[in-house]
Design a protein that fits this description.
The complex is a heterotrimer of chains A (444), B (327) and C (286). Chain A has 444 residues and is an alpha/beta fold. Helix content of chain A is 41%, strand content 15%. Chain A is elongated. By secondary structure, chain B is an all-alpha fold. Chain B has 15 helices and 2 strands. The two termini of chain B are 33 Å apart. A two-stranded antiparallel ribbon of chain C has the order 1-2. By secondary structure, chain C is mainly α. Chain C starts with a helix and ends in an 8-residue tail after the last helix. Chain C has 11 helices and 2 strands. In chain C, helix 1 crosses helix 9 and helix 10 crosses helix 11. The chains are: A alpha/beta (444), B mainly alpha (327), C mainly alpha (286). Chains A and C meet through helix 2, strand 9, helix 8 and helix 9 of A and helix 1, helix 2, helix 4, strand 2 and helix 9 of C.
């Protein structure tokens, strides 16, 4: 008989058995209720919102920039995909998700949220135009998605990028202040070294969208500060908005006025350069230099040519026209870039403009960052801020709120008789830079 | 109208004199749900709800004047845009609700002036005139920004999704409440009489000019409110092309007409169906959706000439298959 | 500067008149305010651009292609869509409102179908682009030819209205729709033909515009707005009104372009506002 007061062996055994069973069951329960391991990731998902339809859309612009989004995904897929460190291998890209915002900010924002919260894309590409990108930046910040905004070019809106408040937003193009500096420096060079004392007065016309107003202001302010005179300035309604310019004849009076004002250089800040050039041609107006903006850099002879129903300028007629773009641009002279330009022609049926490859490279920086640090948004952003990547444009570094820094690019170009591409003429230190032609030949 | 207001304050559930409780209770219920559920919704669905509310309010505001008096106004973008601009420019000086209110009052004043001068015209002349007003407003503001201030965009603070939603929600609720109160009052009846036969209305002593002008001004004011609230959605960026988009002139009219301008439920139904359809089609059939939307509108107009509510009315009197005898 | 405005305004005016005559014809006879008018212009333009790009057909010759094509499209649309609306509408106002809605839908449909097929890029068919000198004013030959052709086509339209039986029937329907029916005019046929003709006129303008202008699938509405401004200014239902109104609008537009290019549309629409307040029925309106 067991001692009184002590637990009998049987009882102890039962207690131990209970503890063991509870323990085993509990452990099993815990293990079973652990969340299942995430399925192995198979594809990288990219998404974007673009303006495809809608009365406010400038369709040609969208069509022009759309291609680089698609190409870069195709190109990487052709090499097996993008290497993602967390999975230790290359993952291909799934078909990207695209939404049409009809150039409406509210729609663009809601689709952006959808891409992030519902479709759960890995990488986001930017929407079209400065206004749209600016409106989306707080969303990028909130959800921590780094985005390279290729079509962003407003100084006022860039302030928050520069202070780091919108740290997840990146820019590639040259900003008005940068372009203003470059144009001013170029004119000073012409007036002191190239053709001393011959460049004194400038006429500026600009469209009423943000681009025109900001670039015109930046250029004018700097020129005035450095002693140039700006006796003529006019603003017009942009192509694409109700009542906007649609033909060369809309520029006839402005060309008349420029001629009467006797300025040495005529500058157009806007996207309607080809209409303006046409007007100059019709009126036989030949100032010493004509400077125009984005929208007519290239394919004058291919894209806009007679075969597709465009105006068609001959190389002789175009010769001397300067493109201020201020983007990091190139004349596709190195072996790699020449090959890239030919590839571009084969795929898009027109030769690239100076900054075409800049758009591509801007997107590529994200991909290269992913290769380094994986798909986490914050890590990608940090990589983009700190790293310099080697791309077809040389050493490439993104600077939020400023233009992308590349070792093989310039900022201002000029048509010099080339059939497909213009020459980089500024800064003088740019790789493969050409000498500027001043005054421009009397083309018409 | 004062009588209505007193009755409303006395027993809030009696939303409109003569409306049975069975109708007002569910409506109040819907609004309560709309007010309470948002924090539970994800960003995307919240924004859909918000868009639907906004278009409903705009369509009903348009209907209040144009639907009743049959003076088709295509100038809604002017007031919506001015409300947007006013709020965007001055929101840093006073709290948002105050600025939105002031913006609406500015629209009220402008609409009074415009109405006094233009409501002598009818039909397409009035439509084109109001459309011209919105074009001129856009051009003037654009000119000012390009030539005078040289700052073509307006930047302002951003709001989070819940604030966006509630701003639009409150505005839509106020709009619908106000219109509900007004349409059953003497005011609303006067507008309807003007719509049916203006000469006859004048004959029985209705001061058509005053009622028309006030009606137009109230409609404009409500759209101005909504424009002000809409700035919360814009994420801190505004320019004339965004504010005065002709779409804001056309869509409220199209939605109201589609739903049927016989009753206030017409524009509501029209706005809800069109904005939801747009949302659904745009996502599933991106490049085709405007084409499909257009086809749907044509089909609806051909098959339901009185709008969607027209069919509903017909069904009420003649039964679903036209079998019920009219009483 | 003045011969600038005189010649530039005249060129625009001639083309605007043509566009407005078409819209006026449609509205006057069928009471449909076709706010998709600019889309027919765009269709004509695209037909011309295609034939120009693919087969090298010059834009002036392509008028005989684009015109009939769009004429047929216009008739079909009128028969398929509008006839039923006319039948169902008891009051003129109902008709106007419903057709407004439908035209709006048509606008969206036509724009986007074209954009789908031809992509949204701007297109043109530059022809006769050499610049010629008229009284010291340099202008592209194509612009002058377009203006002259527009006037010729408008005149042809006038002759048709004045001297043919179909023209008589149209004018009768404009003046007094019920009376016209009473004397045996086939309303249905006249409505369809008028609508088609209006579309044809618009398309002709489009075909000529592309000689010196770019058009995208979405530039239709700009021309619709101008046409609306013109017929409101000139008075609906009046052929002379469209002609005179077109030139007035052309001149106001061009003068504004010379003085302050930012205010072109604003100037045109301000004139409309002012004129309507003084003469609510337009200059020649009934």
């Amino acid at each position: 008989m067991a001692k009184k007061g002590a637990i009998s062996k049987a009882t102890a055994g039962i207690i131990i058995a209970i503890i063991v069973v509870v323990g085993v069951v509990g452990a099993a329960w815990y293990i079973i209720s652990l969340p299942p391991a995430p399925p192995a990731k198979e594809k990288i998902l990219v998404g974007w919102v673009h303006s495809i339809t809608g009365p406010g859309t400038i369709p040609a612009m969208t069509a022009t920039f759309d291609v680089y989004y698609r190409w870069i995904i195709e190109d990487y897929n052709n090499t097996g995909g993008l290497f993602v460190p967390e999975y230790g291998k290359k993952l291909p890209f799934a078909t990207p998700i695209e939404y049409d915002d009809e150039f409406d900010v509210a729609k663009m924002l809601s689709y952006t949220e959808k891409l992030i919260t519902v479709d759960k894309v890995d990488i986001l590409f930017a929407p079209m135009s400065t206004g749209m990108c600016y409106a989306a930046m707080p969303t990028y910040e909130k959800y921590k998605y780094p985005v390279v905004c290729n079509t962003f070019g407003s100084e006022r809106s860039a302030l928050k990028m520069r202070t780091g408040e919108y740290s997840y937003s990146f820019s590639t193009l040259g900003f008005p202040s940068e372009t203003g500096d470059e144009v001013d420096a170029l004119f000073k060079y012409i007036n002191t070294t190239k053709a001393p004392g011959q460049l004194n007065s400038v006429g500026i016309i600009y469209h009423n969208l943000e681009h025109g107003v900001e670039y015109a202001s930046a250029i004018r302010d700097r020129l005035l500060l450095d002693g140039f005179s700006v006796p003529y300035e006019k603003s017009y309604l942009a192509f694409g908005i109700p009542g906007g310019v649609t033909s060369a004849s809309d520029f006839y009076s402005m060309v008349n006025d420029l001629s009467l004002a006797g300025v040495d250089v005529a500058i157009l800040c806007g996207y309607e350069g080809n209409l303006f050039l046409r007007a100059c041609m019709d009126k036989h107006y030949n100032p010493d230099l004509v400077v125009v903006g984005p929208g007519c850099e290239t394919g004058f002879l291919e894209w806009m040519d007679v075969a597709l129903g465009g105006y068609g300028f001959t190389p002789a007629q175009l010769s001397g026209t300067v493109l201020y773009d201020g983007w990091p641009g190139t004349s596709y002279k190195t072996v790699d870039l020449k090959a890239w330009a030919n590839m571009h022609y084969g795929r898009a049926h027109y030769y690239p403009f100076p900054a075409s490859v800049t758009f591509y490279v801007g997107l590529e920086c994200i991909f290269k960052a992913v290769q380094l640090v994986g798909l986490n948004g914050t890590k990608i952003r940090d990589a983009l801020l700190s790293q310099t990547f080697t791309t077809i444009l040389g050493q490439t570094h993104l600077r939020p709120g400023y233009s992308m820094e590349c070792s093989l690019t310039g900022t201002i170009c000029q048509w010099q008789g080339g059939v497909n591409s213009s020459e980089v003429i500024w800064p003088l230190t740019a790789v493969n830079v050409s000498n500027i032609i001043y005054p421009k030949p009397t083309s018409w | 109208m004062l009588r209505n207001l007193k009755a409303f304050l006395k027993s809030p559930l009696d939303l409109v004199k003569g409306e049975p409780l069975t109708r007002t209770l569910p409506i109040v219920g819907i609004f309560v749900v709309l007010g309470v559920v948002p924090p539970l919704l994800s960003g995307y669905y919240l924004s859909i709800l918000r868009e639907v509310l906004m278009w409903t309010a705009l369509a009903v505001s348009w209907y209040f004047f144009s639907g009743s008096t049959k003076y088709i106004s295509l100038g809604s973008a002017a007031f919506f845009g001015i409300g947007m601009y006013f709020t965007a420019k001055f929101m840093e000086f006073l709290t948002l609700p105050v600025i939105v209110l002031l913006g609406g009052l500015v629209c009220f004043g402008l609409a009074l002036v415009i109405g006094l001068v233009t409501l002598r015209l009818r039909g397409i002349y009035f439509a084109i005139l109001t459309f011209s007003v919105s074009m001129v407003a856009q051009a003037l503001i654009s000119w000012w920004e390009t030539k005078v201030t040289r700052i073509p965009t307006t930047l302002f603070r951003t709001f989070d999704s819940l604030s966006m939603y509630y701003a639009i929600f409150v505005c839509a609720t106020v709009t619908l409440l106000l219109i509900t109160l007004l349409r059953r009052s003497k005011f609303g009846l006067a507008l309807k009489m003007i719509g049916e036969n203006e000469e006859a209305a004048v004959h029985v002593g209705v001061n058509a000019s005053i009622y028309k002008t006030l009606g137009f001004a109230i409609s404009a004011m409500l759209m101005g409110f909504m424009g002000g609230c809409f700035t919360t959605v814009l994420m801190g960026y505004l320019n004339p092309q965004i504010a005065f988009n002709p779409l804001y002139s056309f869509m409220p009219a199209v939605m109201a007409l589609l739903g049927g301008i016989g009753s206030v439920y017409g524009p509501i139904i029209g706005a809800i169906t069109m904005s939801l359809a747009e949302e659904y089609l745009a996502v599933t059939l991106a490049r085709y959706f405007l084409i499909i939307l257009g086809l749907v509108v044509i089909v609806v107009v051909l098959l339901m000439p009185d709008g969607i509510m027209g069919i509903v009315e017909k069904m009420k009197t003649t039964g679903l298959f036209g079998t019920r005898k009219k009483s | 500067m003045f011969e600038d405005i005189i010649i530039g305004g005249a060129i625009l005016g001639a083309i605007y008149s043509l566009i407005a005559v078409g819209l006026n014809l449609q509205y006057g006879v069928t009471r449909i305010l076709n706010i998709a008018h600019g889309e027919f212009l765009m269709l004509g333009a695209y037909v011309t651009c295609i034939f120009f790009a693919l087969y090298g057909v010059n834009p002036l010759v392509s008028l005989v292609i684009s015109g009939p094509i769009v004429f047929v499209i216009g008739i079909l649309i009128q028969i398929v869509v509008f006839r039923r609306i006319v039948r169902v509408s008891k009051v003129a106002e109902e008709l106007e409102v419903r057709s407004l809605l439908v035209c709006f839908a048509l606008m969206y449909i036509i724009q986007n179908v074209v954009a789908l097929i031809f992509t949204p890029n701007p297109r043109g068919a530059p022809y006769l682009t050499a610049s010629i000198n008229i009284a010291g004013y340099w202008v592209e030959l194509g612009m002058v030819v377009a203006a002259v052709m527009s006037i010729i086509i408008s005149l042809l339209m006038y002759l048709l209205l004045r001297f043919t039986s179909i023209g008589l029937a149209m004018r009768a329907t404009v003046e007094d729709p019920t009376g016209a029916q009473l004397v045996g005019i086939n309303n249905l046929k006249i409505h369809a033909v008028s609508f088609g003709l209006g579309a044809l006129l618009s398309a002709s303008a489009g075909s000529m515009l592309v000689m010196f202008r770019y058009l995208t699938p979405f530039t239709g509405p700009d021309y619709t707005f101008i046409a609306l401004a013109v017929i409101v200014l000139g008075g609906t239902g009046s052929f002379m009104g469209s002609l005179v109104g077109g030139f007035i609008v052309g001149y106001v537009y061009y003068a504004s372009l010379t003085i302050d290019p930012l205010m072109t549309f604003a100037a045109v629409f301000s004139c409309i506002i002012i004129l309507l307040l003084i003469r609510p029925k337009g200059l020649f309106g009934r």
